Amino acid sequence: MSVVELLKEKIRQEGRVISDDVLKVDSFLNHQIDPVLMLKVGEEFARRFAGSAITKVLTVEASGIAVALMTGLSLKVPVVFAKKKQPSTMDGETYCGRVRSFTKEEVIDIVVAGSYLGPEDRVLIIDDFLASGEAARGLLKIITQAGATLVGVGTVIEKVFQTGGEALRDQGIRVESLVQIGSLAGGQIEFLN
Amino acid sequence: MSVVELLKEKIRQEGRVISDDVLKVDSFLNHQIDPVLMLKVGEEFARRFAGSAITKVLTVEASGIAVALMTGLSLKVPVVFAKKKQPSTMDGETYCGRVRSFTKEEVIDIVVAGSYLGPEDRVLIIDDFLASGEAARGLLKIITQAGATLVGVGTVIEKVFQTGGEALRDQGIRVESLVQIGSLAGGQIEFLN
């Protein structure tokens, strides 16, 4: 079974529709994590972005780390995760973006140390969900500040009805989502792929 | 070269002593991550805890996730990461612990959804650092609430002079640290192993 079909089966069996906007899949993706499935997901992103000469995988803590790590393992490149609060041990130059969190109803600043992204980098953004596109936009701002090049965005589940993916594609950004969901209305998960 | 020697070499080359208490290794462990090295670390923990019939790997977001994920991959068991703030999508029963963060100078509550730990679970706690032992104690509280069994604690770097490891071992808990540091005084990293 392909990783896309595996993911859809998991979502059908374990996903819970919390509202018309929120799908909870924390049994395997972002609270409890299925590492073997995550490795397959990472391998699939590596396959899709093969030949793009990626030098770094970039994500934001905490939900994106597992998927990003397995993608970095498959591509054999380092993974950088943007932090949500500047720790006291982070000194020197930093790059910052601002993200509105959909499920936590807050605005947060995300930050990457200047040492870990630079003009020579070709960056793949990886995250668990793509909804409004807020996280990707924050990370894109960080990539721009670093003078690096964005190769594309990979996401496990795209909630297409929240139009973040559409906005990114309209900017000419390559977006690869393994599972596309068209609607969660009435508690029903409508897959588009 | 063994994974312990690889880690020590990385720490010698890239580690920065920020103060007598703080060693910064965010070039490969907890901001930028080296996924291939993390896989080796995960395999080493799986080797050391082989035969312990572990059913879950438990860590706390965000720095512990990479190491925990690779340990879960090697052991072929799910990974659960405690969240630092209860998201609006987390309903139902939860287990909670309280952790004082050393580098961020704050007290935070960590939480695990009730569905992902239970009396049948044999749990391995994994984290990047073991210093005062605050995170491990918070996670241990969660394991106790769930009625689960703690198998042991695995950490990449133990700052032995901060005595968290000693306190855990005094409770009869098995602690495996890949690299043990005896002192950071005067900007010098003193390895004990």
TrEMBL record, chains A, B:
It catalyses: XMP + diphosphate = xanthine + 5-phospho-alpha-D-ribose 1-diphosphate. 5-phospho-alpha-D-ribose 1-diphosphate binds at residues 131-135. Pathway: Purine metabolism; XMP biosynthesis via salvage pathway; XMP from xanthine: step 1/1. GO terms for molecular function: xanthine phosphoribosyltransferase activity. Its EC number is 2.4.2.22. It is found in: Cytoplasm. The keyword Transmembrane does not apply. GO terms for biological process: purine ribonucleoside salvage; xanthine metabolic process; XMP salvage. GO terms for cellular component: cytoplasm. Xanthine binds at residues 23, 30, 159. Keywords: Cytoplasm, Glycosyltransferase, Purine salvage, Transferase. Converts the preformed base xanthine, a product of nucleic acid breakdown, to xanthosine 5'-monophosphate (XMP), so it can be reused for RNA or DNA synthesis. Homodimer. NCBIfam families: PRK09219.1 (NF006671), XPRTase (TIGR01744). HAMAP family: XPRTase. Belongs to the purine/pyrimidine phosphoribosyltransferase family. Xpt subfamily. This is Xanthine phosphoribosyltransferase. The lineage of its organism: Bacteria, Bacillati, Bacillota, Clostridia, Neomoorellales.
